[in-house]
Each structure stands twice: as C-alpha cells, then as structure tokens.
Amino acid sequence: MAKKTTNKPPLEMDALGQAAECLKALAHPVRLRMVQLLLHGRYTVGEIAEDCGIAENLASEHLRLMQRCGFFTSERDGRRVYYSVAEPHLEDIMNCIESRFLTEAGK
Q: Could you give a GO molecular-function term held by this entry (predicted)?
C-alpha cells in the first residue's frame, strides 16, 4: 500500500483510545440531539428534557456523562442550572454528521 503524505503526525494509540471513548459518549441519539440544541445556546435540564422527549432525571444522566467527557459545562444562575457547549469542535463534528445523514426530504 502506498503511503500518503500528511502534514500531521499520526496520533498515538493512547490518544486514539481517548478519542474512541469520547466518540462512544456521542454515540447516542439523545446526546446528539442535546449537542444540536446546545450549539444554539444554553438551556436548563427541563428545557433539554422537553426538547428531547425524555424525563428530566434521564436528561441529567446524559448531561453528566457529556460533562465528564468535557463536551458540556454547567453554570448556576440562581436556582437554575444552565448547560452549554464546552468543546468548540462539537460544531464541526455535528456538521459532519448532519451533512452525512441528512435525508433527501430534508435537503
């Protein structure tokens, strides 16, 4: 197989393992929907749960996982906690996913 030249050195296996773990966290339709929503602003758990059509406790579990991976951050404002995107590359990832999986009817 011919080698292709690239400007970037290949990632080490440890880094690829970390990348795989992060991608596993994204590999759920509800979490992808949360990313889509939060790319447009900050929202409370209740707002996110309603948009995703799931219970608030389930939304909280998904949000905690995404926070542990560094994708989301939260900020308390009085009695409310708002979530927002912490990882700037999520928009690029979602653009790639959306362009790949848009249906013909959605174009």
A: DNA binding
CB 66 within 8 A of CB 72: yes
Closest C-alpha to 81, from 89, 69, 73: 73
Residue-wise pLDDT for 23-51, tens only, equals 999 999 999 999 999 999 999 999 999 99
Question: Using alpha carbons only, how large is the chain's radius of gyration in Å?
Answer: 17
- Runs of H (alpha helix) within the chain: 13-26, 29-38, 45-52, 56-68, 90-101
Q: What's CA 67's distance to the chain center, in Å?
A: 10
Query: Dihedrals φ, ψ of 58, to 5°?
Result: -70, -40
How many structural domains does the chain have?
1
